Amino acid sequence: MNDFATLVDWSRAQFALTAAYHWLFVPLTLGLSVIVATMESIYFRTRDKKWLATTKFWMTLFAINFAIGVATGIILEFEFGTNWSNYSWFVGDIFGAPLAIEGLLAFFMESTFFAVMFFGWEKVSPRFHLTSTWLTAIGASVSALWILIANSWMQYPVGMEFDPDQMRNVMTDFWALVTSPVAINKIIHSIFSGWALAGVFVVGVSAWFLLKKRNQTMTLRSMKMGAWIGLIGILITVASGDGSAKVVSRTQPMKLAAMEGLYHGEKGQAITAIGVLNPDKTFDNNEPTFLFDISIPKGLSFLAEGDFDAFVPGITDIINGVKIDANGDTINTIPYAERIAIGKEAQSLLKQYDEAKKQGNEVAMQQAKEGLKDTFHYFGYGYFDNPGEIVPNVAITFYAFHIMVIFGSYLIIFFIAILLLLYRKNLTHLLTQNRWVPIIALATIPVVWICSEAGWIVAEVGRQPWAIEGLMPTKAAVSNIPSSSVIITFSIFAVTFLALLVAELNILRKYISKKSQEDLDNSNN
Amino acid sequence: MDTLKKIAYFYIDGFRNMTVGRSLWLIVIIKFFIMFAILKLFFFPDLLATQYDNDADRAQHVRNELLNNR
């Protein structure tokens, strides 16, 4: 592997490590803040001291997670400036604007009210305290919203125009960014997945209390709260996932094909429920796609198009530019070979523009600019020489997608089962007397985190090789720096992040363990 | 001025009365130190901001990178 390929791979690995680490904390912050705010609302309404103790217990766990996770996202911004400087310049204010709004508005709002939430119990009125708790929760979601808008633009660039003089994209329509269908689905999907994750966390930690046979009142009411919010979260996540699939089928059909390991699509396309991919399969050979699979007939057509008989293009179809419309007519989209040619033409026009500018030839500049406008949509394809380079890693995308779906489906059953056990008096003993149900609940904590991370792997690996869909591949986005420096920082990150994670888990474990020794059910605080 | 004092004491008292927080804040401070005093300072310079004086030069660098070096 040459040094440049090593640089791209290590830079991607470093960014993936940082983002995946950051995402360990974010969804818990999003969901647990809502659970804590709901608990405090009940305390505010009932003035029941047991609810106050319950609220304070979960609020402290929220604080530990917040403190360890805070600012890990800033490292991603460091990486933009150092490892991805071409990208940072090329995106201009489009990426910067949502991030700046996030920093100024949401982060400060979140942090200010976070302090009132923790330090203000005896110093502000109960109403103001409750308001602060809710504003912390809302601030966390608003903060995530702007980041997700920025990410969605990379997946589906809209609302901008390329300026060849500045060599960057300029925002022309802020609302097109904010209301992009990719953004809307992604925001809902990500925020409510945080509710599901926090729901499992609360149910799982409560299950540990049940195993220790302590604080049963607090535990059961926490479980109810966690299971309800988790169930609402996972149902909305699934519904928005369906919306996402339909949007992806229009905006990133290659990603959808990779998610399903689909090479040759057909009308009434089946969806693979479980499958083992054939590692020898590529888009240009006739090997079977799967070594083993179980499929649901017509499932993918319905998922992608809302029509059981719709045609869904596979990887080879997309590369060849073949699609079938709703009337059953074959229509040609632009094949990848042609996109590559258009991309190279766009890059050539940009060079011509620069030459004309140097010569002060305004007519030639205008001609090149017009040509660039018509071809810019495929600018990034010009960095490739053959279509096979523009196919994402199918195996990672496929398996991550199926892990997410299978675990997500399990979570629906999990929350319903927990609620049934909690509300059916003749079944509750299975929670309080039996060890197996609490053990399963506890074991579900890592499952939900794997599910959550798998979702991001689908979103980010599935869109490769693009940093910005169609416009800029990762190999163009990366800075020309020595790969050795990226390997060093990757190693520093890996060690530091691991140490911080161990420290957090240790503090969480110690706190939960300490509280399980106290009588929270009869606490006056 | 009184309001500022009140806000300052709000935070000072809050930190002083923390129970779980001491080891937590130590970890946070170590993390911030590693991030800003080591990583940002020595490993993560903003390349375009530090190597070029103006936007025209930065644009030229990126133009050269994107059109000639990839």
Poorly predicted tracts of residues of chain A = none
Mean pLDDT of chain B: 82
Question: Measured on Cα atoms, how large is the radius of gyration of chain B?
Answer: 22 Å
Count of spatially separate domains of chain A: 3
Output the number of helix runs of chain B. 4
Tell me the total number of β-strands of chain A.
Answer: 8
The H-and-E topology of chain A, N to C, reads as HHHHHEEHHHHEEHHEEHHHHHEEHH
Largest chain-chain contact?
A-B, 47 and 37 residues
Rg value of chain A:
25 Å
Helical amount among residues of chain A, as a percent range? Answer: over 70%
Number of distinct helices of chain A: 18
Structural class of chain A: mainly alpha
Helix vs. strand class of chain B:
mainly alpha
Q: Tell me the fraction of residues in β-strands of chain B, as a range.
A: under 5%
Description:
- Chain A is 71% helix and 6% strand.
- Chain A has 525 residues and is mainly alpha-helical.
- Chain A folds into 3 domains: 3-252 and 392-516, no CATH class; 256-332, no CATH class; 336-387.
- In chain A, the strands form 4 sheets. Chain A has a two-stranded antiparallel ribbon. Chain A has a two-stranded antiparallel ribbon with strand order 3-4.
- In chain A, a hairpin with a 3-residue loop joins strand 7 (466-468) and strand 8 (472-473).
- The longest helix of chain A has 44 residues, at 3-46.
- The model of chain A has no long low-confidence stretch (mean pLDDT 91).
- Helices cover 81% and strands 0% of the residues of chain B.
- With 70 residues, chain B is mostly helical.
- Chain B has 4 helices and no strands.
- Chain B has one domain.
- Chain B is elongated.
- Chains A and B meet through helix 2, helix 3, helix 4, helix 12 and helix 18 of A and helix 1, helix 2, helix 3 and helix 4 of B.
